[in-house]
């Protein structure tokens, strides 16, 4: 199962303080919009999303179809294929794609400790 690019999406209290902190760790703004209270920060292959007021806990995020530079991969496992495989292993999905279409869609599964894992396909 190919899950795609990995990042962690952090629920932050003050996006400006968090931005400064991660810049001091060597991260640079890669995407997002400070005015919209979210930034994607990058250091080499490491990606961190900073989100203020958008969700209540941190989320592990995978992006099928993308590499760590948000470039489309020529070959990847569609999120619906991943969804079917997880269901075949009797994993409970918190959110399903809900259709048989193609293109952008996402699913959410919780790990045994309740951590959210978002598999978010943009292509």
Give a written overview of the molecule:
The chain is an alpha+beta fold and 123 residues long. 16% of the residues lie in helices and 38% in strands. The protein has 2 helices and 8 strands; from the N terminus they run E-H-E-E-E-E-H-E-E-E. The chain has helices at 15-24, 79-88; strands at residues 5-12, 28-33, 38-43, 46-52, 59-63, 93-95, 105-110, 116-121. Strands 2-3-4-1-5-8-7-6 form an 8-stranded mixed sheet, with helices on one face. A hairpin with a 4-residue loop joins strand 2 and strand 3 (38-43). The longest helix is centred in the N-terminal third of the chain and has 10 residues, at 15-24. The two termini are 17 Å apart. The relative contact order is 0.21.
Given the structure, what is the number of helices? 2
Elements, N to C (H/E): EHEEEEHEEE
| Proportion of helical residues | 10-25%
Main pleated sheet:
8 strands, mixed
Share of β-strand residues: 35-45%
In total, the number of strands is: 8
Category by helix and strand content: alpha+beta
The largest beta-sheet arranges its strands as 2-3-4-1-5-8-7-6
> What's the Cα radius of gyration?
15 Å
User: Per the principal axes of the C-alpha atoms, what is the gross shape?
Assistant: globular
Mean pLDDT: 95
Oligomeric description of these chains: single chain
Which properties best describe this structure?
16% helix; 8 strands
Quick overview:
By secondary structure, the chain is an alpha+beta fold.
What's the helix and strand layout?
Elements lengths: L4 E8 L2 H10 L3 E6 L4 E6 L2 E7 L6 E5 L15 H10 L4 E3 L9 E6 L5 E6 L2
Parallel strand pairs: 1-4, 5-8
Antiparallel strand pairs: 1-5, 2-3, 3-4, 6-7, 7-8
